[in-house]
Amino acid sequence: MHKREPVPEVKLFYAVLYSDDSVLEQVKSILSEKWGRIDFISPSFDFDKTDYYFPEMGGGLKRIFMSFERTITPEALIDAKLFSDKAEEELSDCGRRLANLDPGYIDCAKLVLASFKGASHKIYIDKGIYADLTLRYSKGRFEPFGWTFPDFKDESYYPCLLKIRNIYKEQIKHVR
Fold first, then answer.
1. What is the DSSP letter of 58?
2. Is 12 within 8 Å of 80 (Cβ atoms)?
3. Distance CA 148, CA 40 (A)
4. Considering 86, 96, 160, 176, which has the largest number of Cβ atoms within 10 A of its Cβ?
């Protein structure tokens, strides 16, 4: 019989798309009410690598990343995705989303996003949700895969994602 290793907690973050700063303030409030104190917020990035969201959300989209002081178990990604779906609905206007809230987690080796859409590289986890391995961490940097979203392939996000990873590393140092 094999002894099971305890599963380490991971660092929850949200990749948020928005165009209106007042909506972003609502997002921060909603997410911190659910997940606790925000411990990192990135600067905003122009979301210009794809026009996928243009028909629904319009132009001028920006992306920010935020992470939370509290770590989570990897399976809590399911709750994070279901919660973000409800929050997006609350923030919608006449059926149009005003924010897109993509939860994910970072651990020492990878970045995983939650998705409602399946694909060959996505692993079904539960309740209609898939885990999308988006980036791996190797030799001091994040590396994309062939299937990684275009904006996540652009290295402009990596300093912020490394900052979130470093916060996580400090947190787990105290757990061991």
1. -
2. yes
3. 23
4. 160
First to last CA, the chain: 25
Query: Is it the case that residue 54 has pLDDT exceeding 90?
Result: no
Count the residues in the chain. 176
Structure confidence at residue 116 as a pLDDT band (50, 70, 90)? very high
Q: Specify the pLDDT at position 175.
A: 66
Two tokens at 36? 């606790």
Query: What is the predicted pLDDT for the residue at 176?
Result: 55
Report how far residue 150's alpha carbon sits from residue 146's, in angstroms, rounded to the nearest whole number: 10
Dihedral sign, Cα of residue 146, residue 147, residue 150, residue 154: negative
Structure tokens at 151: 């904006």
- Residue among 10, 44, 5 at smallest CA distance from 137: 10
